[in-house]
Amino acid sequence: MEEPSTSILRPTFVSETRFNQRSEELPALLECKRELQEGGYHARVIGRHLAAQQHFLAHLAQLNISPQAVRESDVEYFLKTKLQQYCARHGHQPRDIGQWRTRYTAAIHRLLRAIQGQRPSEGRVLTKSERFQRELLEGYGRWLTEVCGLSSKTLCKNSRAARIFLHWLEERASTESLAVLNVADIDAFFSWRMPGLRRATRHGVCQCLRSFLRYLHASNRIRADLSGFVSGPILYGDAEIPRALTEEQVKAVLDCTRSDRSPKGLRDYAMLLMLATYGLRAGEVVWLSLQDISWKEERLRVRRSKTQIESFLPLVRPVGDALIKYLKHGRPKTAFRQVFLRSRAPFRPFSGTSPLNYVILARLKEAGIEVKGRHGPHAFRYARAISLLRASVPLKSISDLLGHTSTSSTRVYLKLETEDLRMISLEVPRKDSDAGLAR
Prior knowledge:
Elements: H1 16-20, H2 26-38, H3 43-62, H4 72-90, H5 97-116, H6 128-147, H7 152-169, H8 175-179, H9 183-193, H10 199-218, H11 247-258, H12 263-278, H13 282-286, E1 293-294, E2 299-303, E3 310-314, H14 317-329, H15 354-366, H16 377-390, H17 395-402, H18 407-410, H19 418-423, H20 431-438
Antiparallel strand pairs: 1-2, 2-3
């Protein structure tokens, strides 16, 4: 059976004459089509997007609404109408209502960005409490960056913690309620927030809340500075033994991933092999660029995530072979310069380092490896440090490989050599010996 045409010039549900009357919308539709094609979307997906966009334009034409004036409420009304038509046709709602909505909203918002330059404005009227919280968080953000001079990462972390606190307050998050905020409210919030969190996470929650309370007092939202009443757990340097994969586990997950010859498998194997070989951080792998690979000189340029210092590492043959296989047979053809891209459309670089955690988790599961505690990129980093320490590599050389500016940062990995510590451990006296000594 012949596949239906995806051409936007002859939509099956809008007459030719009627569509030509809205010819000013054609450039936006063509731009959407070109954007989807460049993103590597399948032809069927492009066809669904364009069909949804044309349905929406026909709906606007019936209501005499200009695409330039569309609001979010107009999109919601369109979805309500389409859902009624779906139910009338099939006798039931879509099995996955969220996925059904996304098929329309993704296409519509892409079209409106091409026409309006942005997504439609929010049509829902915010409640008084929601408006207050939004204004409060915006003011807190300006205070953090303009007054305290903090970075964007700190702004994101502290704003998220403040939003959680305001969400917990619910309707009490108002000018009147904040004015009478007291220590008992802080204790009640911690009783709700802290259970199940690690010691370091609890410490971070306390730090963020202290900052937010200082802002509330500085902006005269609360009468007394309650930040002094927030006492978090004390963090001791090197208090915990880092989690690391064993050499057998690293080998197993690499062997399992190498057997996957799909484009995604080639990408994942190259990334995991770089983690296992160089002990890189997540960002140092995710943001590796094509120009960072010098094939002629056989070396890699790595921008250290923490220090922003550039390091040059030897491009060992196994890593080079894995990269070549991915670049030739797995990497989508795009204009992006980052080495590692998404395996599904749109083919673009990762938006952050979190996707690498999901890759590792999935590959560990495929290899049948159960890891307690942390199992992200740092587990490979610690494993590499252990193997080098046991091979009697000097601490300074390990520091250089891991990108540490001081060997004191590398000494934490010495705690991981528990097997070596057991070799020099003393035998514990038996009970009968203790009894004899007591006599």
